[in-house]
Amino acid sequence: MNREPRVVEVRRNVLKQNDVVARELRARFGEAGVFVVNLVSSPGSGKTAFLERTLTLLRPRYRVAALVGDLATENDAARLSRSGAPVRQITTGTVCHLEAAMIRTALDGWDVEPLDFLFVENVGNLVCPASYDLGENLRLVLMSVTEGEDKPLKYPTIFNSGDVAVVSKTDLAAAVEFDWDAASANIQAVRPGMPVFCVSARSGEGMDHVLAMLEARLAELRTPAGASAP
Amino acid sequence: MHELSIAVSLVEIAEEEAERLGVRVSAVHFRLGALSGVVKEALLSSYEMASADTALEGSRLVIEEVPVMVYCARCDEQRPLESVQLFRCSACGSPTPDVRQGKEMELVALEVEE
């Protein structure tokens, strides 16, 4: 018996489930007027140190909170709690990225309404988190000077999916002979027009520019559509 | 390595469609963008694992790779991207971040037997 297979058109997005939850989250964050940042980088590039510094600097003037994703341990949540901001750990087990549903679960019983900023520290990984929308307003891709200038060329997808880049550990730049021009050219090659911030979470150098950007973006979020900035 | 979880959702969706249509699936056609963040080879081997012991066991995964298209404002045209390491218009060389195609992860069709 020789039956011709029939082809049925289906057209369904495989990540639709994630996108649906991300859209719900984005609507909820939008209503609450909270600005959400998804922080992605490779492991060990200084996400937690950068976030600890950011939370500490923002806290006197803003209501801030953080969710932090890791395969295992609650060490990062403990570190971030030192800033005084409320922090929740998301332990993913073997999952190498955060998904929108994990954010929804982690926010269970948490009132986001009073918040100004919510930071989500993704699992250290420059591949998989690129595919998952978490409902964020801003995707911040962080790379440290110790990783080398060619990181953007090795992981173009995640840099391309990002809104801003942060180059961290600038206090070590001289020691590793970091080539600023090459790094900048590589970022612009994979994501033309991407704003780049250079910071040292240790010394605090450059953090003022990051804070100014975040404050401007929060103000923008809260400006009613159609209204012009004063 | 998130290809396995992508493969699992792909199998779930295909199973759902097969059940709805009351058919047996012999092949799944999938469009995969070059900027999707998913590796074709890893997805193919994950598919075998994900489909084992399901109604999709033994079916083939056929992947169509979708190239990246960017919009060049200067040319007012969509252009294919020559390299994901250089977001430039392939005609005039202007930098452009405006991706119009290449992030697809879409189940497009099923080859079925009644």
**Number of H- or I-type helical stretches of chain A:** 8
Quote the average pLDDT of chain A. Answer: 93
Which parts of chain B are unreliable, with pLDDT below 50 for 5 consecutive residues or more? none
Structural class determined from secondary elements of chain A: alpha/beta
Spatial shape of chain A: globular
Net shape of chain B: elongated
Overall tally of domains of chain A: 1
Description:
The complex is a heterodimer of chains A (230) and B (114). With 230 residues, chain A is an alpha/beta fold. Chain A has a single domain, classed as P-loop containing nucleotide triphosphate hydrolases (Rossmann fold, 3-Layer(aba) Sandwich). Chain A is 35% helix and 20% strand. Chain A contains eight helices and eight strands; from the N terminus they run βαβαβαβαββααβαβα. A seven-stranded parallel sheet of chain A has the order 4-3-5-2-6-7-8, with helices on both faces. In chain A, helix 2 packs parallel to helix 3. Chain A is globular. Chain A starts with 5 loop residues before the first strand and ends in an 8-residue tail after the last helix. The relative contact order of chain A is 0.17. The longest helix of chain B has 19 residues, at 3-21. The mean pLDDT of chain B is 94. With 114 residues, chain B is an alpha+beta fold. Chain B has helices spanning 3-21, 40-51; strands at 24-33, 60-66, 69-72, 77-80, 99-101, 105-113. In chain B, strand 1 (24-33), helix 2 and strand 2 form a beta-alpha-beta unit. Chain B has one domain: hypothetical protein PF0899 fold (2-Layer Sandwich), CATH 3.30.2320.80. The chains are: A alpha/beta (230), B alpha+beta (114). At the A-B interface, strand 1, helix 6 and helix 7 of A face helix 1, strand 1 and strand 6 of B.
